[in-house]
């Protein structure tokens, strides 16, 4: 109940504080939105996209799921949350950027890499993480068992790159990227330091953000 009370107090504080500060902005946003960026990240409670990027309401269209995964494109009649959100952001809202943001100490990456047996009681999570199987196999093959921290780091980073590849399987994304109407970028956020490493496609590695990065 203490946490619930904190949330309720937060509502009041927001209305009297931040809302009043940005009252004109919220008034402008009341009828429509025009975000410039689709931000795909993990559901992890330690990740705050707006805080990391210094953005205001209306700037980011945010998609969150376990381990910031992008399912490869396929036509289906199933209910597909992440795929439909990507479609809406790109086709309806016309975002100009897509960022896939992974992070340090990712539980989904760790479970896939180190303890898949622990997912037996989480059948839907286990099924979801099958989308990372190729990443897991690559990490287990290319990086030594006696360097678990390196494996975890690379699992998180390679997973981001894999999701960028998945995005390029979406026909409308491929077309817009090739036409320079859409920019893709991969980030790796370090929770403990606040640093963000951005994938440099030209050299095939992540580099500490310094303000001069570009994407696909």
Automatic annotation (TrEMBL):
This is Carbonic anhydrase. Keywords: Lyase, Metal-binding, Zinc. Reversible hydration of carbon dioxide. InterPro entries: Beta_CA_cladeB, Carbonic_anhydrase, Carbonic_anhydrase_CS, Carbonic_anhydrase_sf. Zn(2+) binds at residues 42, 44, 103, 106. Belongs to the beta-class carbonic anhydrase family. Its cofactor is Zn(2+). The keyword Zinc applies. One of its GO terms (biological process) is carbon utilization. Binds 1 zinc ion per subunit. It is an enzyme of class 4 (lyase). Its EC number is 4.2.1.1. It holds the Pfam family Pro_CA. GO terms for molecular function: carbonate dehydratase activity; zinc ion binding. It comes from Desulfitobacterium dehalogenans (strain ATCC 51507 / DSM 9161 / JW/IU-DC1).
